[in-house]
Amino acid sequence: MNQHHESTGPADEQQITLRGPAELADALPYLMGFHPNDSVVMVALHGGRGRFGGRLRLGIPQSPQEWPPVAEQLAECLIKGSERRGERPDAIVIFLCQDPAEGESGSQIMERLRPLAQRLRTACGALDVPVLEALCISDGRYWSYCCPDERCCPTEGNQLALPGTSVMAAAAAYAGIQVRGTLREMEARLAPLNTTAVAEQQRALDSAGAELVPKILDEVGRKDVARDTLGLARRLMKRLREAPVTVPSTSDINDDGLISHDEAAAVILGLQDRETRDKAAEWMEGPEADSALRLWRALSRRCVAPYEEHAAAPLTLAGWVSWSTGDEPGARVALGLALRVDPGYTFAQLLHEACNQGLDPEALRRCLRGERSARTGRSGHRTDRRTRPRTARPTAARRRKTPSGSARPETATTRRRPGQAFPSRRGSRSGR
């Protein structure tokens, strides 16, 4: 077994030492905030004691032909990103997580992904950063690609510890850290509906597009649509806030039932205007935040085919509210999905990068508070910004799709830098 020590947190805080592959495998959900399905996860280690640093996640590409370039991209992304934050990694730990398909075993998954693990190790080594451990996690078991000793790392793998029984689980419970289910479950809460209501929602979006897009293209009409969109969104938030609170899965179903197809379509189309979306982003804290997050999730689920790209706006708002309220794993999932449906969505790009760099969302909150105060107190001093809306129906020329598996690498850091400011919000005006 490859013995090494990893500690979490700065030196002046409580540290947890993890020894060997077993404790590393058990720690992964607490490092990410969820159980990563079908994912490559890479974690940077710093110093002689292997302090955890930046971490990165990407969906495993389906085609082995994509593995060599993806491995090089991931290694460069993690190492160069760590260098930009001031700390080059001293080593890296790799996790390959994938559930077996029907008729497949965990051992078969491990062998099938072995070339990917080797590509990742080689790519990191080419940048002079060694891979200290590479683990495959599948079907409740783990395997080490680095340990040749079958006495501790047998070919059939080792059983993962029971949930809640590891050292990391105890430390996470003490620190109040929660694991928010699996990545697949988190993404399902934001995925388009797949019920019999899809056709009716599509018709409502068609109708809303035919009515609202000509108005949005007109300066006077755009202001009317913005006012109506925000007013309807506020009423929907109030409706959701007054509904009884239940467990998450049931809550989503209840929320869907509280919003009609026409109401969802009107707000979705209205949010394609960037200035309207930015005003909606002001519902980010206090009593408004919870109901706003529920609304953005519900609207994301209503972006059915062929309107999937319209989900970029509510998904980005869901990611922003999650980040603003301290749910960084939820923020990364929502923002990653926003960039999956629209890789060029500028507001999602800015938020995703800022969240991954460990910046403090308070900088953007102050900006939004200031804009709200300026608009409500000195609305005549606000300069007018023209924005270009999205088209109602997807165009024939589709955007270039990203490689299978995921939209782009998701990275995270363990420490914030309070002195760093949030990137300028002008990017959300000039882009999307």
How would you briefly describe this protein structure?
This protein is of the alpha+beta class.
| Secondary structure tally, helices | 16
Beta-strand residue percentage: 5-15%
Task: Sum up the overall morphology in one term.
Answer: elongated
What can be said about the biggest beta sheet? 7 strands, mixed
Tell how many strands the DSSP assignment holds. Answer: 9
Percent of residues in helical segments? Answer: 40-55%
How many angstroms does the end-to-end distance come to? 49 Å
Class from secondary-structure proportions = alpha+beta
Uncertain regions: pLDDT < 50 for 5+ in a row? 1-14, 379-407, 412-431
- Mean pLDDT score, rounded? 82
Strand order of the largest sheet: 8-7-6-5-3-4-9
Order of helices and strands: EEHEEHEHEEEHHHHHHHHHHHHEH
Radius of gyration: 23 Å
Jot down its keywords.
432 residues, alpha+beta, seven-stranded mixed β-sheet, two-stranded antiparallel ribbon, 9 strands, elongated
List the helices and strands and how they pair.
Blueprint: E1 5-6, E2 18-19, H1 20-32, E3 39-46, E4 51-59, H2 67-84, E5 91-97, H3 106-126, E6 131-138, E7 141-144, E8 158-159, H4 167-175, H5 183-188, H6 198-217, H7 219-242, H8 248-258, H9 261-270, H10 274-280, H11 287-301, H12 312-324, H13 328-341, H14 346-356, H15 362-377, E9 410-412, H16 426-430
Parallel strand pairs: 5-6
Antiparallel strand pairs: 1-2, 3-4, 3-5, 4-9, 6-7, 7-8
Helix pairs in contact: 1-4, 2-3, 6-7, 6-9, 7-9, 7-10, 7-11, 11-12, 12-13, 12-14, 13-14
